[in-house]
Specification:
- There is one protein chain.
- The protein is an alpha/beta fold.
- It is built from 50 helices and 31 strands.
- α10 (about 200-225) packs antiparallel against α12 (about 300-315), α14 packs across α15 (about 375-385) and α20 (about 480-495) crosses α21 (about 500-515).
- It is globular and about 110 Å long.
Length: about 1300
């Protein structure tokens, strides 16, 4: 597999030279990398990538100086060679590759300023004496401590943590992204075979591993890695490959066999211009990698590497791979001849926390003369946790291999594998005849060893499998999804043989070019031949992110919507509902107004499907209980369904009705018991996959029952294809939404939870930060502190929950909690050693979690319960055979068999966030990181009534605020196909993107026309030839920016340039860079004569008539004559949105003018559409009055320009129009003028505050209704369009195309 991590600039590379390059052990700081290679025998790092060879001719071993230059400072990897050749006399700026790394100013500058002020204070207090070395260290450490507490909202857990933080802040090196660590790991079975193999076998496995990495890197360079140019990176540009350093390791931090390589890919890439410089070097510019495209391709890259490795191993060694896992664990491909038991033997955990804790307790006892008390033991447990997670101890590789071989008698040799391979080949060539096969059958003799290679599977069948797998897990997919799934299907079908990159590409192409593959994205037109890539696709497009779907998915969604729109008998009458509501009020538990609306809508609507959405803690269960009572009083039956067994049981107990999982209901065909008037209630419907949701709806409605769905699309979605519930809700004519949150003790936290749910990204975590609910730090420390906080709540008698965003962190937390409970005497040693499926030792009193349903294992009064996935039990006994006796929450005793325990039981103290949805406790602690999305964070931070805390795992150079922003801006990416099509249609007319494209085209046109203009001025003698050479400078873009501004201000550019350059060649030292010279001269001229460029600028009145006369002469000379305004000019796009100079300049080539004209029309349409939407839907645009002298189209265009500006600058929809601008910027003047023009009529009107508030509320309510209607219209339009396309795709000539995956028999429900 392949994973990716970012590498920070500055000293971020040191981790890789001190640990990764040193085989995951910390090398001494003074020990050079080369010396370490010689001493330890570890393989040296090697350089890879086309770019480093082509540009710098660097190959072979990686040195520490090369890493420091390239990854630490963004310089040439051969910089030291240049320094040595020039005896160290080098301008270091000339060694930089492009721009220097950017700095995060907020953190670094704050630290620098604070240290400077503290030093000044020290001088003031000490008679101007300078602080000594010791005092300076104290100052820096004190400031670092204060900054740490202010950002992390907690004290440093250790001196080491504060030191790391101080090092990051004090470093003068920037902390930008210097590169990406691509980590390639072979499957565990391959590592085990390598560890137990002879030298020949080890060499051949490593060769296959290396070749797989090289092939994956070649693919990444050819198809994935690129860069971006233009505003907001709107244009894709190709690059000359990458520079990468690869380091090989053989074991894990736990000391197990794990053959893996770290490949550090530099973020610096070269964008060629297609021609050469005067010195013969390629012309171009150094940019950074398009990281978004790289991250999107991680899974496809990982499966490509896996397949390449399997293909090489099967071809060379004759081994076969088989698929293992599944169920509640991930599937994986492993070598068939390496048994799972052997793999498990070499999958040990890290140094036992408990063993280290016992050592610390013994040390404490020896020191203090008595055993530690409860509090002291807890501190020692935390110390043990941190210590056992530190880097591994150095063990030479030969000693490590000896340890592995001492652990088992199993051996593998290259010779034995070669012999088995030859036997297979020979056997395949001499298959038995029909007579021999008949004789074998008659004698009932089994055939001799059959070839282990499976029969080839036709590509058409594989394509069907790829689409079927995609349809099961997603409603839409991209090229990368198809490539990854193609790799999986090829590997599984061929047992790892012949499944390399070329076959993946062919299969993925077959899937995407099939007539039944439906493209949802809107490809960009080719505006100019220079804006098309080698495949004929616009460089403003991103084909790797195009969305596709299939007729099967569209049919599934349209059938769901069609069924939902049917009308049946309303399940409950109004009178019954009123009685139920009255009873609740009489009991002293009245429902809120929004809950009453929900109950009435769900109970009395004749629609087949009604949806209700409520935020976390909004009282959905209370409303559902009233609905269940109403249905029962009506004489009908309500069946509760939920996505998980635990949720189903909780639903049944809360509503006092029969409840089960959606899957079980479908499998049992329980719909056969339904009758007209019954109600099927689906709770947490957003977590139910679309296939199951459609099956439930169809079966229930066919039986005459209505379906009611409750959920929240803002929370976690289904693991499989999802978005169906949200689609139903958004297209419903009478959707119900709860708007009051009841769960939280603090009303302010209720409001904050709604901001986190759907508010602006910038405000999502504001309340939590202001109220000390967010803590940040490195993983080791943050896990320990989260556990300590959970433990404190637990000891205080609160119901508390601790969750994490990954299963690895859940396991780590379970380790810590188990050890702390043992240390506190809350659990006891079991009579027999039994471990969970994660390898954790089970103790008496431990809380364990069941991970698979077992309907045969019943318990409780009259066996009304069975062991469900998600059930928590307390261990009361451990048997010799490995079985457990556990106590359920109802105090029933349950037997868990040994096999079930080993495979499906884990410690149950911590949980993943997914397992926590629907749970309510007093306090909740969530361990999160920058990779989670907003929906997961929302669920994690809304489980507790009294307090919810986030414990963020951050890098040392990552501010907590940056991590929170990343979480708030990331949303889930698995929408329904119809919703995705509607969004794609809207994105195709995004005015921000249209503006970026226009400005990118204009930028190229500006470069051409200003280049021509400088040549013309040179030929006429107006400027010296040296000035025209600015065109070849990397700084010419700055010249263009200033010339454009002069031109827009009405300045006579020709005259100004002539005046500014007349002495250029007479200077004693000619400027090295003419472009820099022009920029400086133009800036000086603007500062000296501000009223020339801006006639409205007010200067002091000069009494000198001669001076005023000279100024008037200069003004006439330097300014162009005023041109009369053309008719309709006021309704053109402003210069901020679309500067028109290049479009009207005759020097702009006709092809570029045509491209600009076409894009200008598209931009105008997009802006007007945005304006019309804002007038209908945006809060800030409500109440605006169209000026009398402005047409409707002009008004929409003006509002659209404002909407575009607000979108670019992330101004919330709630911010009034008058507060659109927060800072002064010269290029914003045109759009400011638009705002002033639109707000003047409103300012002229006067209304009382009360009337104004009432009208404002009414306008906002109307805007909200219009927003919903607009969304529904867009979804219905997408629905009609997709239905038509799906019908057309299934009517093509089957003889003209290869078999289509849409013509397979698609299962309609899990039971078929």
């Amino acid at each position: 597999m392949m994973t990716i991590h970012r590498v920070s600039a500055g000293d971020g590379y040191e981790y890789y030279t001190r640990e990764v390059a040193s085989d995951d052990e910390r090398r001494e700081r003074k020990q050079e990398l080369g010396d370490y290679y010689l001493k330890s025998g570890a393989p040296a790092g090697v350089w890879m990538g086309e770019e480093i060879t082509r540009h710098f001719h660097v190959t072979g071993e990686v040195t520490e100086q090369q890493m420091r230059d390239l990854f630490g400072q963004g310089k040439r990897p051969d910089a030291q060679v240049i320094r040595d050749a020039k005896d160290g006399v080098v301008d270091e700026r000339n060694l930089l590759l492009g721009n220097p790394y950017a700095v995060y100013p907020a953190f670094h500058q704050e630290f620098t300023d604070a240290v400077r002020k503290a030093v000044d204070d020290f001088r003031d207090d000490n008679n101007e004496s300078e602080p000594g070395r010791r005092q300076m260290a104290q100052i820096r450490r004190r400031i670092a401590h204060d900054m740490f507490v202010a950002d992390r909202h907690r004290e440093p857990a250790s001196s080491d943590e504060l030191t790391r933080f101080l090092t990051t802040q004090a470093s003068t090196s920037p902390q930008a992204v210097a590169g990406f660590d691509l980590s390639f790991s072979v499957p565990k079975s391959v590592s085990v075979m390598w560890a137990l193999g002879d030298r020949d076998l080890q060499a051949r496995i490593e060769q296959a591993h290396t070749r797989a990495i090289e092939e994956t890197l070649n693919w990444l360079q050819a198809d994935v890695i690129g860069s971006r140019a233009g505003r907001n990176g709107v244009r894709r540009v190709s690059v000359d490959g990458v520079m990468a350093a690869r380091f090989r390791h053989y074991d894990s931090r736990a000391g197990d066999p794990q053959l893996h390589d770290h490949m550090l890919v530099s973020n610096k890439v070269f964008v060629p211009f297609g021609f050469k410089n005067d010195d013969g070097t390629p012309a171009g510019v150094w940019r950074t990698i398009d990281s978004k495209a790289l991250y999107k391709a991680v899974v496809a890259s990982s499966t490509r590497y896996d397949n390449a490795l399997m293909s090489h191993l099967t071809a060379d060694l004759g081994v076969t791979f088989q698929q293992r896992g599944g169920g509640d664990s991930a599937t994986k491909m492993e070598i068939a001849s390496v048994p799972e038991a052997l793999i498990e033997q070499f999958s040990t955990r890290r140094t036992s926390i408990k063993e280290r804790l016992n050592e610390l307790i013994e040390q404490y006892t020896r020191t203090h003369g008595s055993r530690p008390g409860r509090v002291a033991t807890m501190h020692l447990a935390q110390q043990a946790t941190l210590e056992t997670r530190r880097p591994k101890r150095s063990v030479p590789l030969p000693d490590r291999i000896r340890q592995w071989r001492d652990a088992t008698p199993v051996r593998y040799t290259a010779a034995s594998l070669d012999a088995a391979k030859e036997a297979q080949v020979a056997q395949a060539r001499h298959e038995p005849t029909a007579r021999q096969r008949l004789a074998q059958l008659l004698r009932r003799q089994p055939p001799t060893d059959a070839p282990s290679q499976p029969k080839p599977v036709d590509d058409a069948v594989l394509a069907q499998r790829v689409v079927a797998a995609l349809e099961e897990r997603r409603s839409t997919w991209t090229l990368r999804h198809v490539q990854a799934e193609s790799a999986r299907q090829l590997a599984a079908a061929n047992a790892g043989a012949n499944c390399d990159g070329d076959r993946i590409t062919l299969l993925a192409t077959r899937v995407l070019t099939d007539p039944d593959s439906i493209l949802l994205s809107k490809p960009e037109p080719i505006l100019h031949k220079a804006r098309a890539d080698k495949d004929g696709i616009s460089v403003y497009d991103h084909p790797d992110m195009w969305r596709y779907t299939s007729p099967g998915v569209i049919k599934r969604e349209t059938q769901l919507l069609d069924t939902a729109e049917k009308e049946l008998i309303a399940p409950v009458t109004e009178a019954v509902v009123e009685r139920v509501l009255a009873d609740a009020a009489n009991r002293g538990t009245p429902l809120g107004a929004d809950q009453v609306r929900m109950v009435r809508a769900l109970a009395t609507s004749p629609r087949a499907v009604v949806t209700a959405v409520g935020p976390a803690g909004a009282g959905k269960t209370t409303a559902m209980r009233a609905l269940a009572q109403a249905v029962t009083r009506q004489g009908a039956t309500l069946i509760g369904l939920a996505p998980s067994a635990v949720a189903a049981r909780a639903l049944g107990e809360a509503l006092e009705v029969e409840a089960m999982t959606v899957q079980r209901w479908l499998t049992k065909e329980a719909w056969a018991d339904l009758k007209p008037g019954d109600v099927v209630l689906v709770d947490e419907a957003a977590m139910v996959g679309n296939t199951s949701l459609a099956a439930v709806t169809e079966r229930a409605v066919d039986a005459g029952a209505t379906v009611r769905m409750i959920g929240d699309p803002a929370q976690l979605g289904a693991v499989d294809a999802s978005g169906g519930f949200e689609l139903l809700h958004r297209t419903s004519p009478d959707p119900v939404e709860l708007d009051r949150v009841w769960r939280f003790k603090d009303p302010a936290e209720a409001d904050a939870s709604l901001e986190l749910r759907s508010g602006p990204a910038g405000a999502a975590f504001t309340w939590y930060q202001d109220n000390d609910r967010v803590r940040g730090g490195a993983e080791q420390e943050i896990l320990a502190e989260a556990h300590a906080a959970w433990r404190a709540d637990h000891d205080a008698g609160l119901t508390t929950l601790i969750v994490a965003s990954s299963t690895e962190r859940v396991a780590a937390l379970n380790d810590q909690i188990s050890v702390s409970r043992a240390a506190a005497g809350e659990t006891a040693d079991a009579p027999y050693r039994v471990t969970t499926r994660d390898g954790q030792v089970i103790r008496l009193g431990d809380t364990v979690l069941a991970r698979r349903n077992d309907p045969s294992n019943k318990y409780g009064r009259r066996d009304q319960h069975f062991v469900r996935n998600g059930d928590l039990f307390t261990v009361t006994d451990v048997a010799a055979d490995g079985s457990l006796t556990v106590r359920a929450t109802d105090q029933s005793l349950v037997q868990l068999e040994a096999d079930y325990t080993a495979k499906h039981v884990q410690l149950g103290y911590a949980a993943t966030v997914h397992r926590s949805q629907g749970v309510t406790v007093d306090t909740a602690h969530a361990v999160l990181d920058a990779s989670v999305d907003r929906s997961l964070a929302y669920v994690a931070m809304t489980r507790g009534r009294q307090r919810n805390s986030a414990w963020l795992v951050v890098e040392d150079d990552q501010p907590v605020s940056a991590v929170l922003t990343a979480i708030a801006e990331r949303t889930s990416d698995n929408p329904a196909a119809i919703a995705a099509a509607a969004q794609e249609a809207r994105d195709a007319h995004d005015p921000v993107r249209m503006r970026d494209i226009y400005n990118d085209l204009a930028g190229t046109a500006d470069r051409i026309r200003w280049g021509k203009r400088l040549d013309e001025l040179t030929e006429s003698g107006s400027i010296p030839p040296q000035a025209a050479r600015a065109l070849k400078s990397a700084s010419f873009a700055e010249v263009i920016s200033r010339l454009n501004r002069l031109e827009a201000d009405g300045v006579n550019v020709n005259t100004v340039l002539a005046d500014l350059t007349h002495d250029m060649e007479r200077q004693q030292e000619r400027p090295q860079d003419p472009a820099v010279f022009l920029v400086e001269r133009i800036d000086e001229w603007r500062d000296k004569y501000p009223s020339i460029a801006d006639p409205s600028h007010e200067e002091p009145v000069d009494d000198d008539l001669a001076a005023r006369s000279l100024a008037d002469t200069q003004r006439r000379r330097w300014r162009l004559p005023e041109e009369p305004h053309a008719q309709g000019e006021n309704e053109r796009l402003s210069a901020w949105t679309a500067p028109a100079a290049a479009l009207s300049d005759p020097r702009t080539p006709e092809t570029w003018r045509q491209a600009l004209s076409t894009q200008h029309e598209r931009l105008t349409d997009a802006v007007r559409d945005a304006g019309a939407r804002a007038l209908n839907e945006a809060d800030w645009a409500q109440g605006l009055k169209r000026p009398a002298d402005m047409s409707q189209a002009g008004w929409e265009q003006a509002v659209g320009e404002i909407a575009t500006y607000r979108s670019i600058n992330r101004v919330s929809d709630r911010v009034p129009l008058e507060q659109t601008f927060t800072a002064q910027a010269s290029d914003e003047a045109p759009v400011r003028a638009v705002v002033d023009r639109l707000t003047r009529p409103a300012a002229a009107e006067s209304r009382s505050d009360r009337v104004d508030d009432a009208l404002g509320q009414a306008e906002r309510a109307l805007a909200s209704a219009r927003r919903r209607a607009a969304i529904d219209d867009a979804l219905q339009a997408a629905r009609r369009s997709l239905s038509e396309r799906a019908s057309n795709s299934q009517t093509h000539d089957p003889q003209a195309q290869p078999p289509s995956p849409a013509r397979r028999q698609t299962p309609r429900g899990p039971h078929l």
